[in-house]
Design brief:
Elements lengths: L1 H13 L6 H8 L3 H13 L3 E3 L5 E3 L1 H13 L3 H15 L2 E8 L2 E8 L14 E3 L4 H8 L3 H11 L12 H14 L2 E4 L6 E9 L5 E10 L9 H14 L10
Antiparallel strand pairs: 1-2, 3-4, 3-8, 4-5, 6-7, 7-8
Length: 248
């Protein structure tokens, strides 16, 4: 029994960085047939989902569990204060989301000090191409990886302002790299704008992002971009990012 559980955990862990069955098998050292059987069980339980091109990514149940666990842990103490400080400085709704396959999932949210509430919630998944966090993550990847995300997801239209073609997305990603932060101008939700910046782990790999969001009637995302970048850098360092890393 222990052997079967070990194999399932190995596949689950490999799925964080690999999506193709062959790559997961190579990463775990398990036969492809065994990996395929475990993945089918994970799909049935909502822990994984097929991408339609022969690959797999974390499923909705996995994302929801991750969000609930991180929320219960209050995102350890060394991270949460940075989000609250960003909220204090900007007055906006602040999010932290972690990358999972071709999407990200909110793991923390600090509500803005306005009478309204944004629709986002901990455990909710978000598209990369239409959100400030997502575009910040894409800007930390290579253009080939960005094009791969576009091909696999199809860049679904969320609002009339959503970027839905790969050339437009690549141009936006390039502008994000120059600017230093990503912007969402009603591209994911009508009436909402946000600024986002990437978060990196101790190895220098992008693992998620931070955003500060508000209604477009309140202000634009460019006003808080530098603040969001600073918070993302602080969180990255809290996660072990070397101080001399130049990815941000």
């Amino acid at each position: 029994m222990g052997g079967a559980v070990d194999k399932a955990f190995e596949v689950m862990e490999a799925l964080v960085e690999q999506s193709r069955l062959a790559d997961i098998a190579a990463a775990t050292g398990l036969p492809k047939a065994t990996v395929h059987r475990i993945l089918r069980v994970m799909v049935d339980r909502g822990l994984a989902r097929p991408t339609g091109d022969g690959g797999y990514v974390s499923g909705p149940r996995m994302l929801a569990l991750a969000g609930r666990v991180m929320h219960r842990l209050d995102l350890p103490a060394q991270v949460r204060p940075h989000l609250e400080e960003l909220h204090r400085r900007t007055g906006r709704t602040v999010h932290l989301a972690l990358l999972s396959g071709d999407e990200a999932v909110y793991v923390a949210k600090v509500e803005g000090d306005k009478p309204y509430r944004l629709a986002s919630r901990v455990g909710m998944s978000l598209h990369l191409h239409s959100t400030s966090i997502g575009k910040a993550i894409l800007a930390a990847l290579g253009d080939g990886e960005v094009a791969g995300v576009a091909e696999r997801t199809g860049l679904p239209r969320r609002t009339p302002r959503t970027i839905t073609d790969v050339d437009g997305l690549l141009a936006e990603v390039a502008a994000t790299r120059v600017r230093g932060w990503a912007e969402d101008h009603e591209e994911n939700e009508a009436g909402v704008c946000a600024a986002g910046a990437a978060v990196y782990d101790h190895t220098g790999h992008v693992v998620g992002g931070v955003s500060a969001a508000t209604l477009v009637l309140e202000a634009g995302p460019d006003q808080v971009g530098p603040e969001v970048v600073m918070t993302a850098r602080q969180i990255s360092k809290a996660l072990g990012l070397p101080r001399d890393f130049d990815g941000q």
